[in-house]
Amino acid sequence: LRHTSSPSRISSLPWWYLAGTVAGLCQAAAMGAFLGQFARTCYGVTLAINMLWTTALMNIVYLIPMGRKWHQGMCLVLTQLGWRIALLFAPWVKCQGDDDYVEQWSLVLSLMADYQADAAREGKPPRPLFILGNHASFFDTVLAVAKFPVQVVWRVRTYMSNHLFKLPVLSTICKSVGHFPVHFTSSESGKFKVDAEKMEAVEKSVDAHLKDGGWLCFFPEGQMNKEPDKILPFRFGGMKRALEFDAALVMLVFRGNTDVWPLKAQVGGFPGRVRYSLRTVAMDGAKAFVEMARSEGNPEEKDMPDHEILARRAQELMQAQYDALGDERQSGISSLQGRMKNSAKKDDDRAGSAGDVGRGKLACMSVGWAVGQCRVVAA
Fold first, then answer.
1. Rounded to an integer, what distance in angstroms lies between the CA atom of residue 105 and that of residue 156?
2. What are phi and psi of 275, to 5 degrees?
3. Which of 16, 274, 304, 327 has the fewest CB atoms below 10 angstroms from its CB?
């Protein structure tokens, strides 16, 4: 009953409605663990099968005589196809973009095409696109790749911890698609010191990728967030790189991924609902964004370097975008509960005789049970 706004509302509900709600909650709790593990097993098997056949095809792709960019692009599209199929066979995982998700991508791709055309006329490297995302689950990566437009998947690369390049199957994907390894000196959580000598070579590869028209996608929090409702401070490395290349910035934010794939779970696939949205942040470039921020005259930012201002403002925008997804989700739950309560009231009003009232109460108990089920799923 945690979604009820006040105790007085609970006391005003008929006892048979409350009884039905409690029964629904109890039954849902009893079945939830079994169904959750079954769903997780099904998703894990499906994901593994799709990763196996995609990696097999990647090895074949690299036998075809063509350029490195074509090899990597085709392998990325294969990865996207495999992960999309895994989600298709997991209908209990509800992934829904906001109302203008597709329109936002159309706008971004149109602007990036204009930037590329201008750069070609002027003989300059094109402005890259940086896609920033919040990070609370392994499912972030799977869902991002699955929901990117194909033309984005083809051009985008990301940073990945070097230990992932050593895992069976996943290592083949990481190497085939051209992602960039991050060589940490420690595997301890929260420790971000890297091997400077090894990372120097990696950063040269990143520079070459961006100058050649490639895009970059990364999680600026730098680690999986144990408290996903509060976005962590952004690390400065990615912000410095965005300013260096004057990159266009967008944010792809998810809410609910930890329900589907909890932080410490090796395999996800639990029933859940994920909301996501795309928002433009600095389509005119990171430098113009910082200049606009400085023009506001915030005294706290007066002596801050540009990369710190960019990190601070971008974190605030990501937090607002994440919170907005929560507001939309709660609005949908409240609307569903309101419709079900109205249905229960109508059933009771239609009961005229004593016998009909009894049948009306039974109907209310049934609706209350259903509401209880919905509340467990929503929670």
1. 14
2. -110, 145
3. 327
- Distance separating alpha carbons of residues 140 and 257, to the nearest angstrom: 7
- What is the reported pLDDT for 24? 59
The answer to whether the CB of 269 falls within 8 A of the CB of 44 is yes
CB 185 within 8 A of CB 194: yes
Give the angle 51-56-57 at the CA atoms, nearest 5°: 100
Crossing angle of the two packed helices 15-61 and 68-88, in degrees rounded to 10: 150
From CA 81, how far away is CA 74, in angstroms rounded? 11
Confidence of residue 36 (pLDDT cuts 50, 70, 90): confident
Say what the pLDDT of residue 327 is: 81
pTM over 0.85: no
AA identity, residue 239: M
Which sign, positive or negative, has the C-alpha torsion 300, 301, 307, 310?
positive
- Extract the tokens encoding 62: 């690299």
Decide if 314 contacts 219 (C-beta within 8 A): no
> Looking at the predicted structure, is the pLDDT value of residue 321 above 80?
yes
What is the average per-residue pLDDT within 48-73? 95
Supply the pLDDT for residue 103. 96
